[in-house]
Amino acid sequence: MSLHEIGFEHEIDETGTTLEQNSAIKAEAVYNWILDNGQWTIDGVFADDTGLEIDALDGKPGVYTARWAGEPAANRAKALHELEGKTNRGAQFRTVITFIKANGDRFAVSGIVRGRIAEEEYGQGGFGYDPVFIPEGYDQTFGELPAAVKNHISHRSRALAELVKALNR
Q1: Are 25 and 16 a contacting pair, CB within 8 Å?
Q2: Mind listing the pLDDT tens digit for each residue in 82-91?
């Protein structure tokens, strides 16, 4: 069920300094809201946080990925500017999912897709940093790849696969 389907319409402040913290903050907010509103009819809640971690920039923008320079085009421009003249363009997208069971037990899983930052933007697909991120094994950016390909290899799909594995243990 989506947040809308359960009636959760609140903004959640992402005040953590890591993807793990923000993922947990979001999951806890929904979990506590469900407990406070007596609507617990599900097995648990999960929430994620995602970041782009650029090797040559010591993992930046990381947890600040969405708000590094303000908006998507400015974020991409900042990444390209920060990498000017650098040969190490390695990067990864990483998603962390926190799952909280109805009884309060919790765990986190993650998914990573390694790649590199292109020299310039390519493609109109996707969102955020997709036009500058080339995943390993490909010669096109996420912005150029068909959505079905991107969704199959993405950090989010890998994190969701890990969540399914963990739930089935």
Answers
A1: yes
A2: 999 999 999 9
- The reported pTM is 0.93
Q: How far apart are CA 89 and CA 54, in angstroms?
A: 7
The residue range of the domain holding 147 is 3-167
Q: How many structural domains does the chain have? A: 1
Q: Name the helix (H) or strand (E) containing 108.
A: strand 106-117
What number of other Cβ atoms are within 10 A of residue 111's Cβ? 21
Say which CATH number the domain at 103 has. 3.90.950.10
What strands, in cross-sheet order, belong to the sheet with 133-135?
61-62, 44-54, 90-101, 106-117, 133-135
- What are the catalytic residues? 49
